[in-house]
């Protein structure tokens, strides 16, 4: 099987932030959470307070103002066009996406793209998380949970933070825009925070 990160790898951009923007435009009450999201972002990224999982759980509180299931379907009606052309050429029906984005956001792609999704477990109702953010080593743990004997033929990501998965694969590639090049194992993500 081939395994892919999602945001900036096969999706042109960050789907989570695009969905937040979409939700706030559709549900003006969600805008009331903007100062809070700014605050928790500053605490996490500038002052290094808390874990990535804790930060994201706080950020997703805006979901309380949304009709998430319908919003997600409408979001993909508008944004499926952002799947990168190189991926459309490589696609196979046994492809797996492993992403830190919320599972509720990416799960509809299983039917739309004919792929398997493993992502962060986040409640679409209130943003509460179950388990850790699906990032770095957690991606390996989640992959092995679903595919205990699974072998990764090729792995694709836009970030060297995914090195643990790259090391599991027979071949690994780094993706920048639509350019795919061999993984450079001498490079490591330097500002890694989980």
Features:
194 residues; alpha/beta; Rossmann fold; six-stranded mixed β-sheet; 9 helices; 15% strand; globular
Question: Topology of this protein?
Answer:
Layout: E1 2-4, H1 15-26, H2 34-45, H3 52-59, H4 68-79, H5 85-90, E2 96-102, H6 103-106, H7 109-113, E3 116-120, H8 137-146, E4 154-157, H9 163-168, E5 171-176, E6 179-182
Parallel strand pairs: 1-2, 1-4, 2-3, 4-5
Antiparallel strand pairs: 5-6
Helix pairs in contact: 2-3
Describe this structure in words.
The chain is of the alpha/beta class. It has a single domain, classed as Rossmann fold (3-Layer(aba) Sandwich), CATH 3.40.50. Helix content is 39%, strand content 15%. A hairpin with a 2-residue loop joins strand 5 and strand 6. The longest helix has 12 residues, at 15-26. The protein starts with a strand and ends in a 12-residue tail after the last strand.
Biggest sheet details = 6 strands, mixed
Q: Total helix count?
A: 9
Please tell me what the overall shape is: globular
The beta-strand count equals: 6
Gyration radius (Cα, Å) is: 16 Å
Number of domains: 1
Q: Which regions have little confidence, pLDDT < 50, spanning 5+ residues?
A: none
CATH superfamily: HAD superfamily/HAD-like
Terminal-residue CA separation: 27 Å
Strand numbers in spatial order across the main sheet: 3-2-1-4-5-6
- Structural class of the secondary structure composition? alpha/beta
CATH C-level name = Alpha Beta
